[in-house]
Amino acid sequence: MNPETEPGRPIRILLVEDNPGDVILTREALRSCKIRNSVRTVSDGEKALAYLHRHGEYSDAPRPDLILLDLHLPRMSGTELLAIIKAEPGIMGIPVVILSSSSAEEDIARAYARHANCFISKPVDLDQFVKVVRAIEEFWFTVVTLPERRP
C-alpha cells in the first residue's frame, strides 16, 4: 500500500543524523515536498535503536515509513545500526536510505552488504542537496509500492 492512499496521515520519516546543519537542510527540503511528511530526528545510533524499539523517551514513537541514515554517528555507527535493523524481523522491512557525506567505495559496499535499500552521497551544493532529498521522497512514496503500514 502506498502511503498516499491513507488519507490524513503524513509519511513518517526517521532522520538519523548528528550534524545540526544537515538536519536543518533535510527538514527544509522535506518541508518543501509535495507529499505531507512528519520527520522525527535522533542524533546517534543508540537513540535510533531506542526509537525503533520504543524504549524510554520513545515509548510512543510511531513506526517510520522510511529511515534516512547517516553512516558517521556517535555511540553506534550507521553501519552497525543498519545491520541491527536489517536483522530484526519487527523492523527489517522499513526501507533504509543511507544519506552520507562519504562516497568511499568501502562504505558503499559495507552498506549494501548490510542490506541498505540505497546509498546516496550528500551533495555539498545546497540546491543539489534539496533536489536529492526531494528525489528520495518522490521515489519512495510515489514510485515504490511499500508493504501495508503498521501503527
CATH class: Alpha Beta
For CATH, the homologous superfamily is named as Response regulator
The fraction of residues in strands falls at: 15-25%
Q: Helix/strand/pairing class, anyone?
A: alpha/beta
**Could you name the ranges where pLDDT drops below 50 across 5 or more consecutive residues?**
1-5
- Second-tier CATH architecture: 3-Layer(aba) Sandwich
Shape: globular
Number of strands: 5
Largest sheet: 5 strands, parallel
Total of helices: 5
Can you tell me the CATH topology?
A: Rossmann fold
Q: Structurally, how many domains make up the residues?
A: 1
End-to-end Cα distance: 14 Å
Order of helices and strands: EHEHEHEHEH
Give structural attributes.
151 residues, alpha/beta, Rossmann fold, five-stranded parallel sheet, 5 helices, 5 strands, 37% helix, 17% strand, globular, disordered N terminus
